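Private note to self, pasted from the team thread so I don't lose it. C-alpha cells:
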C-alpha cells in the first residue's frame, strides 16, 4: 500500500523557509523596498560603523567576500552581539569559536526549533526536517538514515564515486577555458546525489536544479522570480518524482539507498508527506551546495596560494590533510541559528527565552584563539579537523565523511591527470548569507607533461 496516494495542495512550504532567510511576507518587503534599506554595511570601513548598527545578515558582504573584517571586529569587541533590528527581526551573533561550541553543546537551552535559519517559518507552512528538530525526534530520524553515510556504505560507494569522477575529469577540455562550477562541481555532486538516492541517473541534473530552486532568493531575472514559482516547481515536479520512487521502494525489499531507508525505517516509514519531503530536501540541499562549493573553493585557494599548490604537487599524500583545510577555509554554510528555550547567560550577556542566536561558523573558523594563523590557507596543518564547518554536537553534519571522501578522491584523480588547474578569470560568488558559494570559476587545465 503506497504511503501517499495523493499530495496535499497545501505543501506550499517548499521554499526558502527550509534553510533560508525569507518567507513570503518578507519577500514582498524585499521586492517593494530597495535592498539599500537592509544593506547598511557593504563598502563601509567596519571600524567606522557603530557596533550597535552591525547586522551581518547582508548577502552583499558575502557576495563580495568582504565579511571577514566585520567578523574580526565583532570577535574582538562584541563577541556576543545583539542586533536589535534586521530583515528577520532581532538576533544575537556569536562569533568566537569557544562560544559557538558552548551553544552547540547545550541543545536543551539552544533549540533547533522552529528553524535553523534566521527567518522564522511561515505560520501554517512549517517544514519538518530533522536538522530543525530537537530530541528525541531528531535522534530517531537521524539514526534511520545515517547508515547510508556510515563507513561500510562509504567503502562500497568510494569505487563508484571514483569511476564517476574519472569519467568527468577525462571528458574535460585541455588548454581551453571552461567553467569549473558547471562542468565539475555541479556535475560531480549531482552524480553523487543520484547515487545516494538511486535516482534515475540520466535525470540527475534535476536534483541539482531542485536544490537550487529550493534555496534561491526570488528576484527578477533570477532562477525563480517568486515564492509561488518555487512552490509550483517543487510541488509539480520534485514531489511527484519522489513520491513515485517512494511508492516503488516501499513495495520492494529494503536496500541501501536513502529513499528505501526512509520508506522502511521504523521511525520514518509513517512520516507524513510533509516530513518526507522535508527530509528529502534536507538531504538534497545538505549534500549539494556544500560539497559543490568546497570543490570550487579548493581550486580557488590553491591558485591564490601557489606555494601550497607546489607543496601539494610535490607531496600528494597531503590530500587527506588538505581536505578539512579546504572545508574550514570555505565554510560552505556560514551559520546555523538556535532559539533560546529559557533565559540564560552566554559570554556575560543575558539571552532571553525566545531570542534568536546565530552561530557564525565562518567567524569561528577565523578565530585566532582556536586556530593558528587562521586567515592563511595551509594544507598541512597539525590539527586540520579543528574547525566548525560541520557544526558540532548532536546536529554535527551527518554527511561529513562522505563529503571528505568525495573531495579526497576528486583531488587524487586531479593530481594524476593535470599539472595545474589554472584559474584564468575572477571567481563569481553567490548572493546569499547562509550558503557561501561560487557561481562561476573560469579555469584552464594544464596536462602533465609526458
Ligand atoms: C563540505 C560539505 C558539507 C558541509 C560543510 C556541511 C555542513 C553542515 C552543517 C554546518 C550542518 C549543521 C550542523 C549543526 O547544526 O551543528 C550540517 C547538517 C547536516 N548535513 Fe551537512 N555538510 C556537508 C555535506 C553534507 C552531505 C554530503 C550530506 C549528505 C548526506 C549532508 C547531510 C547533512 C544532514 C542530514 C544534516 C543534519 C544533521 C542533524 O541535524 O543531525 N551534509 N551539515
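Design output:
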Amino acid at each position: 500500500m503506497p504511503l501517499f496516494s495523493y499530495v496535499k495542495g497545501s505543501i506550499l512550504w517548499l521554499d526558502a523557509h527550509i534553510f533560508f532567510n525569507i518567507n513570503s511576507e518578507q519577500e514582498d518587503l524585499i521586492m517593494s523596498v530597495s535592498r539599500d534599506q537592509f544593506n547598511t554595511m557593504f563598502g563601509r570601513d567596519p571600524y567606522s560603523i557603530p557596533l550597535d548598527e552591525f547586522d551581518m545578515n547582508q548577502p552583499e558582504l558575502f557576495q563580495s567576500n568582504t565579511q571577514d573584517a566585520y567578523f574580526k571586529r565583532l570577535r574582538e569587541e562584541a563577541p556576543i552581539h545583539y542586533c536589535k533590528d534586521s530583515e528577520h527581526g532581532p538576533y544575537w551573533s556569536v562569533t568566537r569559536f569557544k562560544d559557538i561550541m558552548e551553544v552547540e553543546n547545550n541543545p536543551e537551552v539552544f533549540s533547533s526549533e522552529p528553524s535553523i535559519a534566521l527567518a522564522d517559518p511561515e505560520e501554517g507552512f512549517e517544514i519538518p526536517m530533522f536538522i530543525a528538530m530537537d530530541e528525541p525526534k531528531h535522534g530517531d530520524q537521524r539514526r534511520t538514515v545515517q547508515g547510508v553515510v556510515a563507513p561500510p556504505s562509504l567503502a562500497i560507494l568510494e569505487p563508484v564515486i571514483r569511476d564517476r569522477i574519472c569519467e568527468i575529469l577525462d571528458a574535460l577540455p585541455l588548454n581551453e577555458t571552461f567553467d569549473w562550477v558547471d562542468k565539475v562541481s555541479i556535475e560531480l555532486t549531482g552524480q553523487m546525489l543520484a547515487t545516494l538516492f538511486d535516482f534515475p541517473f540520466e535525470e540527475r541534473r534535476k536534483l541539482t536544479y531542485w536544490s537550487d530552486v529550493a534555496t534561491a532568493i526570488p528576484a527578477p531575472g533570477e532562477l525563480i522570480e517568486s515564492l509561488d514559482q518555487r512552490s509550483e516547481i517543487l510541488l509539480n515536479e520534485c514531489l511527484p518524482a519522489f513520491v513515485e520512487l517512494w511508492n516503488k521502494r516501499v513495495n520492494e525489499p529494503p536496500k541501501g539507498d536513502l529513499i528505501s531507508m526512509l520508506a522502511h525505517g521504523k521511525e520514518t516509514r509513517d512520516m507524513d508527506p510533509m516530513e518526507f519531503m522535508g527530509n528529502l530536501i534536507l538531504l538534497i540541499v545538505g549534500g549539494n551546495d556544500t560539497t559543490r562549493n568546497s570543490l570550487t573553493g579548493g581550486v580557488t585557494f590553491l591558485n591564490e596560494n601557489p606555494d601550497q599548490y607546489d607543496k601539494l604537487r610535490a607531496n600528494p599524500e597531503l590530500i587527506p590533510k588538505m581536505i578539512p583545510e579546504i572545508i574550514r577555509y570555505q565554510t560552505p554554510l556560514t551559520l546555523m541559528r538556535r532559539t533560546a528555550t529559557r533565559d540564560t547567560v552566554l559570554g556575560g550577556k543575558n539571552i532571553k527565552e525566545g531570542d534568536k542566536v546565530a552561530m557564525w561558523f565562518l567567524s569561528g573558523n577565523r578565530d585566532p584563539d582556536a586556530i593558528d594563523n587562521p586567515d592563511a590557507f595551509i594544507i598541512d596543518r597539525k590539527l586540520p579537523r579543528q574547525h566548525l564547518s560541520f557544526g558540532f554536537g548532536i546536529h554535527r553534519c551527518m554527511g561529513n565523511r562522505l563529503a571528505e571522501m568525495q573531495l579526497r578522491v576528486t583531488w587524487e584523480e586531479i593530481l594524476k591527470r593535470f599539472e595545474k588547474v589554472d584559474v584564468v578569470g575572477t571567481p563569481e560568488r553567490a548572493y546569499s548569507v547562509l550558503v557561501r558559494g561560487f557561481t562561476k570559476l573560469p579555469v584552464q587545465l594544464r596536462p602533465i607533461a609526458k
